[in-house]
Amino acid sequence: ELNLPELQDMSCLKAHCLDVNVPLCAIAVTSNSAAFNKLEAVSEASQASESSLCKFSWIEGQKHSNFTSSFGIDSSAKPMELVFFSPRKSRFALFTGEFTKQASSH
Fold first, then answer.
1. Among 86, 89, 102, 94, which residue's Cα sits nearest to residue 29?
2. Pairwise CA distance, residues 30 & 15, whole Å
3. Beta carbons of 30 and 2 less than 8 angstroms apart
4. In degrees, to the nearest 5, what angle opens at C-alpha 71 toward C-alphas 18 and 83?
5. Any residues with CB less than 8 A from the CB of 63 and at least 6 apart, and which?
6. The pLDDT of residue 83 is above 90
7. Does pLDDT of 89 surpass 60?
8. By CB neighbour count within 10 A (0-12 exposed, 13-18 middle, 19+ buried), where does 58 fall?
9. Which pLDDT belongs to residue 91?
10. To which H or E segment does residue 17 belong?
């Protein structure tokens, strides 16, 4: 079971990212069900961090292509992309590298 909120609309984004007064939001953008194991790794990273510095969530990229394209993401290109977004600075960065359960535990 994922312990990771899904961003289904703007109200979810506000509740889990914009209105919670955190420096960073990590948003996993998935393209298909093949990314489920990668979402599990994000969920584990979220539980491991349990800090007020970063809040984790996920969004289905193909359903919300207008949102994901604002981060320069083509949701059909990869099973999952991870975006770190600073609400205060209105800046973002894409995570690069392998995202596995082993990598998220380091």
1. 94
2. 20
3. no
4. 65
5. none
6. yes
7. yes
8. buried
9. 93
10. none
